[in-house]
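Everyone, describe these structure tokens:
***
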Amino acid sequence: MTESVPLRGGPAKDPGSPAEDRRHMIRRRALTLLIIVLLIGVPAGYLLISAEQSRSSGRDKEEKYSATGLTEGWPSKLQRRLYQIPVPHPAGKVAYYETNNWRTSRLYIQFETSAAGLDAFLAGVGVDRGDLERDDISISDRDQRVTGWDFSAPGQWWGLIHTQENPAPTQDIVVNLANPQTPMVYVVSRTVP
């Protein structure tokens, strides 16, 4: 005799549990959809924001390092410390430019300050006003071309070269004292890495 195989239907329902009504099913599906969106959407949103910040940072760095002349603003504290340029407070019309190659690194900086600020700057470098020589344009023609500085205009030009042993930087300093209350200072600080 052949045995008959019982028919298989769906899972047996527990007679004690009520059937899921439509409202409960919609709520369960909405909760499942919300969980899926949160599990996928939040990390994806984070990745998009992170990528945009990274891209913006790259653009800022590219702009900074592709500069081909003086850039308005203060050099970083690290640059000021490496090149030993103690820009005094207050200082205005601050602009700088840095060049690096395998032989020499240079920081070009200009700023306008007060008479006391000039004295503080010179003391910070390790010199004083007595070391300045009248009509001594100590910044080379090459460095003037790099920055666009022009010291041929009439004025009271004073300059000096503050030489130090490597690895300490050497500073070429020119000061325009046409207005003694607000002298304009130009510095090229160079170091050999």
